[in-house]
């Protein structure tokens, strides 16, 4: 079966700070023409940081698009040209104040492949040392230590609903 | 600690078919002013459909934003004013040809709360009956039966990277 869709024309309809949006005319696999609206984003990194075998570092952060303070694992955007293997270390330290001496890549996820190219690289961080946090300008957050069993309970009962956090738990702890 | 950010002004920078994009001036929790770019999306539904205790229905679908044919659980956008409890039934039948007599809600996820308000409602569907698929106009996809153990292996080895699929497996099967 043929699935591919071919780009015919592309128009940048928004060129912003953290994303661009394009509207493309495409030829669908069935030969018909249609439009696709695509958000282009730099992607990011997600860190499952284990303080010990039962304790995970979480952060609480206000997420403006959903108007909620979200309990999630440390994560952040890739900077221009930045390698994910470096970004994960930067983000963990910025958001929690910890450095880790053991890093294990857990692959990547696509958060919304229907309309967005965002790709998040997941990592497990272990053997942690506290060096003091220094969040990004304008980033107000709290780092919190939680029992892994509590995090899993909160995922199950719907108190944790952040997709990247669920994915990191699944890839890093539950498979 | 105060986390909230207050909207000062809002400008719609793109008003499209499946999304709108707004650029808001906000007052951060620390009192400073900044901008937030937000993608507004209608959200959708995600279905973990179990044919039996060991078999799950998956779909293969080309995802234009990432230029890949993606192996994922059945899912789709909410139509204007549509209830997720109805949309999950519609999407399962459209994409796989199956109806289910047992539905269990698995809560929701936020796919990218840093810049997008997309919310996906997850469901487990059981007691399936085949009635014949009829995909959306322009939606070219294949429904595939897979062993749950194979799906988990593919999540682990990085062949399945779709966030909503990982979240559905975690909420519905792995916790």
Q: Give me the secondary-structure category of chain A.
A: alpha+beta
Distance between the termini of chain A: 31 Å
The overall pLDDT of chain A, averaged over residues, is 95
Q: What count of helical segments of chain A does DSSP give? A: 3
The SSE string of chain A, one letter per element, is EEEEEEEHEEEHH
What is the number of E strands of chain A?
10
Q: Please tell me how large the radius of gyration of chain A is.
A: 18 Å
User: Largest interface, counted with CB-CB under 8 A?
Assistant: A-B, 73 and 73 residues
Strand content of chain A: over 45%
Would you write up a description of this structure?
Two copies of one chain form a homodimer. The first copy, chain A, has 175 residues and is an alpha+beta fold. Chain A is 19% helix and 49% strand. The first copy, chain A, has three helices and ten strands. Chain A has helices at residues 84-96, 148-156, 163-174, and strands at 6-15, 19-27, 33-41, 44-52, 55-63, 68-72, 75-77, 98-110, 119-130, 141-147. In chain A, strands 4, 5, 6, 7, 8, 9 and 10 form a seven-stranded mixed β-sheet that branches. A three-stranded antiparallel β-sheet of chain A has the order 1-2-3, with no helix packed on it. Chain A starts with 5 loop residues before the first strand and ends with a helix. The model of chain A has no long low-confidence stretch (mean pLDDT 95).
Key terms for this structure?
homodimer; 175 residues; 7-stranded mixed beta sheet; 3-stranded antiparallel beta sheet; 19% helix
């Amino acid at each position: 079966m043929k699935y591919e869709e071919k780009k015919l024309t592309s128009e940048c309809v928004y060129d912003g700070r953290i994303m661009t949006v394009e509207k493309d005319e495409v030829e669908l696999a069935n030969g018909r023409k249609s439009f696709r609206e695509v958000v282009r984003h730099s992607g990011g990194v997600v860190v499952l940081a284990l303080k010990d075998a039962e304790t995970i570092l979480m952060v609480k952060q206000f997420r403006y698009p959903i108007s909620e303070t979200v309990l999630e694992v440390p994560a952040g955007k890739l900077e221009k040209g930045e390698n994910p293997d470096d970004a994960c270390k930067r983000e963990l330290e910025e958001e929690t104040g910890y450095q880790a001496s053991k890093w294990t890549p857990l692959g990547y996820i696509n958060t919304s492949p229907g309309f967005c190219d965002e790709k998040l690289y997941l990592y497990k961080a272990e053997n942690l040392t506290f060096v003091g946090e220094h969040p990004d300008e304008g980033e107000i957050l709290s780092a919190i230590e939680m029992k892994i069993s509590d995090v899993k309970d909160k995922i199950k009962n719907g108190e944790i609903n952040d997709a990247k956090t669920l994915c990191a738990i699944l890839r890093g702890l539950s498979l």
